[in-house]
Write a structure and sequence with these properties.
about 150 residues; 5 helices; about 0% strand
Length: about 150
C-alpha cells in the first residue's frame, strides 16, 4: 500500500503539465535582459577603452585599480549573457519537446532553463554590486586629494 507521501507526489506529478506557452513566457524577459546586458557590455567596453588610454598616458595607479574592477565586471557580464543564452536555448528545447509530446524532456529542460536564468540574474546582482567598487575607488581618490590640499 502506497504511503500518503507517495500519493501526494503522484498527484503533484500528474497535475504538473507543461504547455508550449509556459516556456514562451520567458522570451520577453530574456529579450529585455539581453538588451540590458548588451548595453552594460557596450558601456563597459567604452569605459575600458577610455581608461586604457588614460593609463597609457599617465600610468596612473587609480586607472589600474579601475581597470581591475572592470575586468571582473566584464567576466560577470559574459557569464550573464552565456547563462541567459543557454536558458533561452533550453526554453526552445522545452517548447519543441512539448510539441513532440516528449514531456520527459520538456520538464527538465524548462526547469534547467529557469535555474540558468536565476544564475544569470545572480551574476547581474553581483555585477551591480561590484560596479559600485569603481565609484568607491574614485571617491577615495577624491577624499585623499581634498585632504592634501
Amino acid at each position: 500500500m502506497p504511503s500518503s507521501l507517495q500519493i501526494s507526489a503522484a498527484r503533484i506529478q500528474a497535475s504538473m503539465t507543461l504547455e508550449v506557452s509556459t516556456p514562451a513566457l520567458l522570451f520577453p524577459a530574456i529579450s529585455l535582459l539581453f538588451l540590458s546586458y548588451t548595453n552594460r557590455f557596450l558601456h563597459l567596453s567604452a569605459l575600458i577603452r577610455k581608461l586604457h588610454g588614460d593609463w597609457k598616458k599617465s600610468g596612473d595607479s587609480l586607472a589600474r585599480k579601475q581597470i581591475e574592477n572592470l575586468r571582473k565586471r566584464l567576466v560577470l557580464i559574459r557569464a550573464m549573457q552565456l547563462l541567459g543564452a543557454l536558458s533561452l536555448l533550453l526554453c526552445v528545447v522545452a517548447m519543441v519537446s512539448v510539441l513532440a509530446n516528449r514531456h520527459w524532456i520538456a520538464m527538465p529542460s524548462f526547469a534547467i532553463a529557469l535555474l540558468l536564468m536565476a544564475g544569470s540574474l545572480v551574476c547581474l546582482v553581483w555585477e551591480v554590486w561590484i560596479s559600485g567598487g569603481a565609484l568607491r575607488i574614485l571617491l577615495s581618490a577624491m577624499e585623499r586629494e581634498s585632504k592634501q590640499h
